[in-house]
Automatic annotation (TrEMBL):
PANTHER family: MANNOSE, PHOSPHOLIPASE, LECTIN RECEPTOR RELATED (PTHR22803). It comes from Erpetoichthys calabaricus. This is C-type lectin domain-containing protein. Residues 1-22 form the signal peptide. CDD domains: CLECT (cd00037).
Length: 183
């Protein structure tokens, strides 16, 4: 009947919408690394946690949240630890992520508002101290709560953009051009 046809069309429509969401097309800015619908940026210059968080906001991002072992593995793979043999070039060992318990002690939250579904604490962490921000160790990928006023590199994360910002903005009167979606 036509009712069933409507239901089928609705389901096909939903599947199509879901498909386009899970395909996760989109763009990342230069120097941002795409992964599973998001873009990541690792900044080596050190800031206190609050300033690192603000720096991510200025890029339309948040300090990174990490939600599963796959995403955690991806982040570690981007940290570059051990890839550079020169001691001089070795990346900093600790980077801020978005996890913090600034609102309520020992209740850790992500700055991007996502639920805490996964953690990778170093053994013995989080310590019951006035350490309200969380760093990730480049070497092991383990997490440690730390004094927020410590200087650390940091990782920003944002959703992929539907729009690619053209490199030739001046030639297009500042308009963004929508190009073909990435595979
Ligand atoms: Ca700690």
């Amino acid at each position: 009947t036509s009712q069933w046809l409507m239901v089928i069309l609705l389901l096909v429509g939903l599947l199509f919408s879901f498909g386009t969401l899970t395909d996760q097309p989109g763009f990342c800015q230069n120097h941002w690394v795409p992964y599973a619908g998001h873009c990541y940026y690792i900044e080596r210059s050190k800031k206190i946690w609050k300033e690192a968080s603000t720096a991510c906001h200025k890029e339309g991002a948040f300090l990174a949240s990490i939600h599963n072992i796959e995403e955690h593995s991806f982040v570690i793979s981007q940290l570059g630890y051990g890839r550079l043999s020169s001691h001089y070039l070795r990346p900093s060992d600790e980077l801020w992520i978005g996890l913090n318990d600034l609102k309520m002690q020992m209740l850790f939250e992500w700055t991007d508002g996502s639920h805490v579904t996964f953690t990778k604490w170093q053994t013995g962490e989080p310590s019951h101290a006035s350490e309200e921000c969380v760093e990730i160790f480049s070497s092991s990928g383990k997490w440690n709560n730390m004094n927020c006023n410590s200087y650390r590199g940091y990782i920003c994360k944002t959703a992929k953009s539907k729009w690619e910002i053209s490199d030739r903005l001046s030639n297009t009167n500042g308009r963004c051009q929508q190009k073909g979606q990435t595979p």
